[in-house]
Amino acid sequence: MEKLTIGLCPYCGMGCRFYIKTLNGEPVEVEIYEGGVNEGKLCPKGLTALDFLRHNDRLTKPLKRTENGFEEISWEQAIKEIAEKILEIRDKYGPDALGFFSSARCSNEENYLLQKIARILGTNNVDHCARLCHASTVAGLAQTVGAAAQSGSYDDIPKAKVLLIWGYNPAETHPVLMRYILRAKDNGAKIIVVDPRKTKTAWFADMHLPLRLGTDIALANAMMHVIIKERLYDKKFVFSRTKGFEKLIKVVEEYTPEYAEKITGIPAHLIREAAVTFATAGRGIIMWAMGLTQHITGTGNVKALADLGLICGYVGKEGTGLFPMRGQNNVQGACDMGALPNVLPGYQKVTDDEKRKRVAEIWGVEELPSEPGLTIPEIINKAHEGEIKALYIMGENPVVSDPNTKHVIEALKELELLVVQDIFLTETAKYAHYILPAAAYAEKEGSFTASERRVQWNFKAIEPPEEAKPDWEILTMLGKALGLKFDYESVEDVTREIALVAPQYRGITPERLKRDVEGIQWPCPSEDHPGTKRLHVESFATPDGKANIIPVEFKPPAELPDEEYPFMLTTFRVVGQYHTVTMSGRSKALTKRWGEAYAEINPKDAQKLGIESGDKIRIVTRRGSYECKAKITKRIGEGVIGVPWHWGANVLTNDVLDPEAKIPELKVSACRVEKVM
Ligand code: SF4
After folding, report:
1. In this structure, what CATH number is given to the domain that contains residue 634?
2. Residue 266 sits in a domain of what CATH number?
3. Tell me: the pLDDT tens digits for 296-307?
4. ipTM, 2 dp
5. How many domains does the chain have?
């Protein structure tokens, strides 16, 4: 029998809808759903989103590591043994010897349950890969505007008169969003792209500012210097809706365009032109992603962009906004659900006695831990030092996604218990003591939250292979085995509990989500509330309702070129692959076109090194070496090497952390390049 089920793309945070066509319960093809935020359009990843579902590599049975390698084990036995070991470790070493990695590719309900397990066991050591992408956004926006989310909606983009796209390449990472950007351009908006590479997005820009790696704050401060000196800021907005402007004036005083030119490499006249273009447009949006956030100054970078938007009055109005663009399909939701070490669901601080008490009451427990837990890099470091003894990983692949791969592997090998719950035998799962086979997106139900705070229901189209189970079911089994009151009979039971716990989700019920398949944007305070398109319209989510302008000083990256490592290394993504290629790497269509690692080298550097396109090269940093083919291109500037990180380039990257958000400086390392003979 042929059937069409409404699907939700499992890749990026755009939130595109399509139909999954099945024949006798088996996936056949993706069909276009005329509507949704994607308006019937899909990128190469969305079009091939069924390819990995029935791949032979799928995990289908629970596995246990034995002397003879991995052996099959029943679900009952696996869950029993895992629960016993977790409790044994907690009782012997204390709850903070446990760590939990949640997942931006699992549903809200699944993230909610994993953090609930961690916290009831007595630890806040729960985190997920937002730590590696937008942790600095969460920290920076929380301090400035009080809400760690995109302030407007995609619909605001075509209404803007200027788009400042910073460290973000939507043409490859959110291709469907480019339609909104190009519509803005058609409507007369100016597009300014700030990126060290001449990305595909930069091709469409009116101005491209190829700054030196890690010099974002100097550039933003210089733009604000010009805007303040030329009195182009929005005086009414600044004085009525913000505080801290006087301090900003003092800090940006020394950042003249000429001074910033020396730091950033961008000619002073272009900095001036960009500042004036941005401030005088009347309606502007700032969009950013990993190019801005993955630095030791990531939180400062976000604050600087928030300051820039605020002084121009570009927040809370139509055609304006601060738009951190989310990478994974549920990274927004995983943050909302409190899969973070410092906040409970709904960004309620673990240190807030009243909020913690309220959540504990709903969960039927006496108390919850009040000290913020460890982040992903800290959990890895503590595992390395032997202090974290057990790690439960749901749908993450830190061996490939985290910086300094060698260090990560060494840490995983130290653990007394490593459980990996995933759909494929990932590079990380190979080090596990237990592997639990999970259902993929099309094989389960639940809610997911896209980049613009849009919560959508994910409908089940097919059955999971063999014994694989939805993550929420696995966690319910585990919760029960741990002795917790986990009496959920359906995923909808969890959705309803989320509405009780997370204030932003109060009016979001499974019934509404199933009825209104195009979703609801949080905050949604009651069941008759339509959802919220735009945040900060009348006041900011801060205690006094005013936004905090927080000036920041430029600080150089942790590693700079020297004699031994004369180049700067940066990483990027390609349109046809996704993250650690666990899913997209199993699509023949995608791997045929985007199947090989390479490194971009500027022609002048290539000439000096005697390298031609297609030559095999070795890139070496202080942490490791990596071989791939050279691609000689003017897309990258002199002195910089660019590598897509999908295929294991994190053996090279730096795990030094932003002290505020604990995000690693994945975007900048010093390296050398050798031709492999
Ligand atoms: Fe999927 Fe993102 Fe592509 Fe849309 S833009 S089809 S959500 S990968």
Report:
1. 2.40.40.20
2. 3.40.228.10
3. 999 999 999 999
4. 0.99
5. 4
